[in-house]
Amino acid sequence: MKKIKGSLPLQIFIALALGIIAGLIFLATGHPEIATNYLAPFGTIFLNLLKFIVVPIVLTSIISGVVSLSDIKKVGTIGLRTIIYYFCTTAIAIVIGLIFANIFKGTYHTLSTSGLEYQAAEKTSLMDTLVNIFPSNIIQPMSESIMLQIIVISIFIGFGIIIAGKKADPVKNLNESLYEVFMVIMRGIIKLTPIAVFCLIAPVVAENGPQILGSLAMVLLTAYICYFLHAFIVYCSAVKLMAGMNPIKFIKGVIPGFLFAFSSTSSIGTLPISMECVEKMGGRKDVASFTLPLGATINMDGTAIYQGVCAIFIAACYGIDLTLGQMITIVLTATLASVGTAGTPGAGMIMLAMVLQSVGLPVEGIALVAGVDRLFDMGRTAINVVGDMSAAMIVSKYEERREAKEKASA
């Protein structure tokens, strides 16, 4: 597979900086609607192109990943290790969020809670979530981009190809051909990334500038402190201890995916770039094809931090002090809720409603942070994607060591 050009991270960074500058200019001149009306649509077009290509990429890549592993037991082992890693880092993330939110809690008292209105999403039970993982047909999940169901479909098709053996070779070859075709299309779309980043960032800055400088600044600062601490302490320690990888090399390797996720606020949309980043760092293609799409769906570390920070903030605004038991409930709820939350822009708001309901906080409090949710979303999505890539590297190294051990004992 063609690697990401070395200049792409620089191009994305320059586009990000120019977008921020342009947004500030539109804000200063009193014309933020120019960015919203004339730049944002091009960013939306780019995101639409990503949505168009992501479903076939996820479907064919997971099928290829499962088939390349050639052993159903091996798929189960890799899947279990990946899920355990994701759950553990998500739990750690929300604990970090709760700790720092409590440290800064004294500053969360300046907003009025009068007249708040927010329409909460309908609460889904654990059993309903379990049932909804399994599709009733093959078309609906693809047309509606229901990623968990697409992953399940891909795994079953992959298992079918493995079990059918040589009779399934035509299907296997067709899938590989389709994967290459979709990757060619994806590479063409990725070339537009710097332009898209500029068009996505400028409207955000132009619209939210005053709020950044307002009373929500400390909440945003708290969240971003947690984001970076989680990335540099948890992920870097994990890749060092579990994959034997230099943390500096890892940080440099994830920059393209990080910047794109930060701009697009879509874990799913960042998948193509994440896959190339992992391969460039030396990760295995078969493992990345399985762990990254799974992580984009169930790994929500950045979102978990957001839940903790916002829950404490909303409670403080209502004059409520959360008990230790309620905080433990938040950790458990947010960790489990991450399984059913799609890696798409705004998904964190749905999780936050579930978390608030779990500890009896007013769901209407979401309106306090809804106006700047995009700013939270940029950071939390970027951290989610970095977590996905750390898992891919760790599982890749584990598989290399396991195979080396098997060869040595043979």
Please give the alpha-carbon distance between the first and last residues.
31 Å
Structural class: mainly alpha
The percent of residues in helical segments reads over 70%
Which overall shape is indicated by the principal axes computed on the Cα atoms?
globular
Number of helices: 17
**Overall pLDDT:** 80
* Major pleated sheet: none
N-to-C series of helices and strands: HHHHHHHHHHHHHHHHH
- Number-wise, the strands total 0
Percentage of residues in strands: under 5%
Flag low-confidence runs.
1-6, 110-121, 342-346
Rg, alpha carbons: 21 Å
What does the secondary structure layout of this molecule look like, with pairings?
Layout lengths: L7 H21 L3 H38 L2 H32 L22 H8 L5 H6 L2 H18 L4 H22 L2 H20 L4 H27 L3 H18 L6 H10 L4 H14 L2 H17 L6 H14 L9 H12 L8 H4 L2 H37 L1
Structure overview:
The protein has 410 residues and is mostly helical. It is built from 17 helices and no strands. The longest helix has 38 residues, at 32-69. The protein is globular and about 65 Å long. The chain starts with 7 loop residues before the first helix and ends with a helix.
Question: What is the compact description of this entry?
Answer:
The chain is mainly α and 410 residues long. The chain has helices spanning 8-28, 32-69, 72-103, 126-133, 139-144, 147-164, 169-190, 193-212, 217-243, 247-264, 271-280, 285-298, 301-317, 324-337, 347-358, 367-370, 373-409.
